[in-house]
């Protein structure tokens, strides 16, 4: 059983990918098997043409099918999640998330985009059959800072990610993994 981390940003590096890196570290510390999928792993042409038979689309569909739980991270642009993520979600089968718990993570320039998690992303995840879409975690650009030394995630955000992951593991029946006694350092 594994948790699949889906990076919805078309850019690298990105703040939403930094949140996924933090989630990855928390999950590995708990002894959870983690897989990663980025929208950049899938052919852009296949996504735009909805080429369901393209090898990269089929590989993404397999990864989603094999996961017990999903963490999806996206930047919020103009009050909506990334178009590249939408294109990826559109090529998944209608029941791709059936029986799965999903934890959404998002980043944006200001708190004004927070509702995009509930009003834009959540309905699509539910339409794909997610058994449970957990309360999303939103971080502003000010809460994820880049420096020459790396990325620093605000301690409150790191703690919320750790808590959200604990809930995800419990909901997905992966709670037997090693407990994380304290959140990991917020530096990625």
From TrEMBL:
SUPFAM superfamilies the record matches: Flavoproteins (SSF52218)
GO molecular function term, any single one? FMN reductase [NAD(P)H] activity
Recorded hits in NCBIfam families, A to Z, give:
FMN_reduc_SsuE
Q: Which UniProt keywords apply?
A: Flavoprotein, FMN, Oxidoreductase
Organism equals Comamonas serinivorans
InterPro entries hit by this protein: Flavoprotein-like_sf, FMN_Rdtase-like_dom, NAD(P)H-dep_FMN_reductase, NADPH-dep_FMN_reduc_SsuE
Q: Could you list the residue ranges forming a coiled coil in this record?
A: none
UniProt entry tagged with the keyword Amino-acid biosynthesis: no
Q: Which residues form the NADPH-dependent FMN reductase-like domain?
A: 1-141
- Protein name as catalogued: FMN reductase (NADPH)
């Amino acid at each position: 059983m594994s948790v699949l981390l889906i990076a919805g940003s078309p850019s690298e590096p990105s703040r939403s990918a930094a949140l996924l890196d933090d989630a990855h570290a928390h999950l590995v510390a708990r002894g959870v098997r983690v897989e990663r999928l980025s929208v950049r792993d899938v052919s852009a042409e296949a996504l735009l043409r909805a080429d369901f038979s393209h090898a990269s689309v089929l590989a993404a569909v397999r990864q989603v099918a094999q996961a017990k739980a999903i963490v999806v991270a996206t930047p919020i642009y103009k009050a909506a999640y990334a178009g590249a993520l939408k294109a990826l979600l559109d090529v998944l089968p209608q029941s791709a998330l059936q029986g799965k718990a999903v934890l959404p993570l998002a980043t944006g320039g200001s708190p004004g985009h927070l509702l995009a998690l509930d009003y834009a992303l959540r309905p699509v995840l539910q339409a794909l059959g997610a058994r449970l879409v957990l309360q999303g975690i939103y971080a502003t650009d000010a809460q994820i800072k880049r420096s020459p030394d790396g990325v620093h995630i605000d301690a409150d955000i790191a703690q919320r990610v750790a808590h959200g992951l604990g809930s995800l593991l419990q909901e997905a029946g992966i709670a037997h993994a090693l407990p994380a006694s304290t959140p990991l350092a917020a530096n990625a």
